Amino acid sequence: MKKTLTSVSVIAGLCAGMVCSAFAGPVESGLGKTKVSGLLQIHYTYDNGANPMNMFRFRRAEVKVSGEINPKILWNVTIDPAQVNEDVTRKSPLQDAGVTLKHCKYMALDLGQFKVPFGMEGLDSSARLDFAERAALSSVFKWSEGRDLGMMLRSDFKIGDVKIMPFLGIFNGEGQNRADLNNGKDIAARLVAMPITALQIGVSHYNGKTGAAEAENTHTAGEIRYIMDPISLYGEYATGKAGTTNKLTYYASAAYKINDIFSVAARYDFYDANSDTSGNALADITGGINYIIDGLTKLQLNYVSRSEESLSVSNDIFRCNLQVTY
Ligand SMILES: [Ca+2]
Ligand SMILES: [Ca+2]
Question: Own/partner pairs for 232-235, CB < 8 Å, 24+ apart?
């Protein structure tokens, strides 16, 4: 079914010696407080496809500058030069740029370019993932983790002991660093509840139209996460329509913290690019080891076994991610 990958464990040893020391200290600011932070991810990937490929790549080289004019007016700008290499349609290294207003006690208003509130894993920090790459909901369908220009209201409050976090945004609908191509604005809404600290459940809905032809772009997702140290279990289910094509994806992940240095993780990830026709669905089973070097500085080794609904081909993937956050 799939070829066996050659040993690449030597990469792990090379990467482990490359850790930089973290930057820490005050940054002089023109007005208000300013903070500089960032994330560097260096990947080695071995893709055992029809034409096997192996390569080093900069997965992320994020630099985030954020600050507050006062406690009610916050701002941030994040650039990632590596992402332009990863995806030429991005046009610019600009990731996030925006202002957050917190003039109301229970509500915040974000304006600018930022992640659309849809899904769960896609909105989690890239530095905190259990795997080197997100599930297909984000990495293939781009329904979660996607950025756009617009505005969003969000809140965070409690009803009894239940924590509630609603998000409601309107966006251009064309994705990051792009002008709108129609007059309609897309709507994204997400509602998350935490009945107990360990349990998070949520639903998301996105409704919009893309491009001058106003192709339908609508999807709905459910999320659940249960974290009881040292175990975390989570998954998402999403279905939607891109143009005239119906799509479906779901995944279930489990992670287990062995100690402060090692954790292991496994994921089953199903994605069907056209749920009206058979033969085009894929299922990835990923097994991973995380080696914590210092806090969020870590080494991740992932093996992805990919299965096809119809014709089986060689396309397993080995991924190695060395990341440093500062
Ligand atoms: Ca639009
Ligand atoms: Ca299908």
Answer: 232/130, 234/120, 234/121
Q: Which residue has the tokens 């650039």?
A: 79
Domains of the chain and any CATH numbers: 9-325 (2.40.160.10)
Q: How far is the CA of 80 from the centre of ligand 2 (A)?
A: 34
**Which one of the ligands is nearest to 247 CA?**
2
Q: Which ligand is nearest to the CA of 245?
A: 2
Do 298 and 323 form a contact (C-beta atoms < 8 A)?
Answer: yes
CA of 170 to the centre of ligand 1 (A): 9
CB of 237 within 8 A of CB of 137? no
- Rounded Cα gap, residues 283 and 305, in angstroms: 8
169 C-alpha to center of ligand 1: Å? Answer: 13
Q: What pLDDT is stored for residue 20 in this prediction?
A: 38
Calculate how far, in angstroms, residue 184's C-alpha sits from the geometric centre of ligand 1. Answer: 4
Reported as a single tens digit per residue, the pLDDT across 32-86 is 899 999 999 999 999 988 788 899 999 999 999 999 999 999 999 999 999 887 7
Looking only at the bridges linking them, the beta strands covering 157-159 and 147-155 are unpaired
Question: What type of residue is 121?
Answer: E
Per-residue pLDDT reduced to its tens digit, 273-309 = 999 999 999 999 999 999 999 999 999 999 999 999 8
